[in-house]
Write the structure tokens for this entry.
Amino acid sequence: MNTEIDSKITDSEWEVMRVVWAQDKVTSKEVIEVLQQKKDWKPATTKTFMGRLAKKGMLHTEKVGKKYLYSSGLSESEFIKSTLEVTFDNICDRDVGNTIVELISKATLSHDDIEIMEKALEMKKKEAVEEVPCSCVPGQCKCNDHCCSSGC
């Protein structure tokens, strides 16, 4: 079994993982039933995606009698956090704030969600800097295009 997880998954693989995360341990039949309702996939299609996810280390298989149970060693929230960290590691540090604002503006949020974010922002204010430095090498972003006016 692959012990390293390949966190690059397709939209279709996300669909499978969401079923697994919702059920904790699930049979292929249960995944197939859920995704037939949502995606109208044939059983072989779902099994193909499950096989790919197992090869990537995202799905663990356990034989119980004649059935296989599938689970993930990584929770949905851990996976999302990891995916976001990779995304933020690959963009200019100066773009992180605007990217977060864009995500927030597109999200449907509850009053509780907003209250939690406001508290997090209050905490972040304590360590905020006047200007976020660019983390890119020249030619990787547009920060250096304005070098003369921003004084870098």
In short: The first strand starts at residue 26 and ends at 27. Residues 11-71 form a domain with the Arc Repressor Mutant, subunit A fold (CATH 1.10.10.10). The two ends are 49 Å apart (CA to CA).
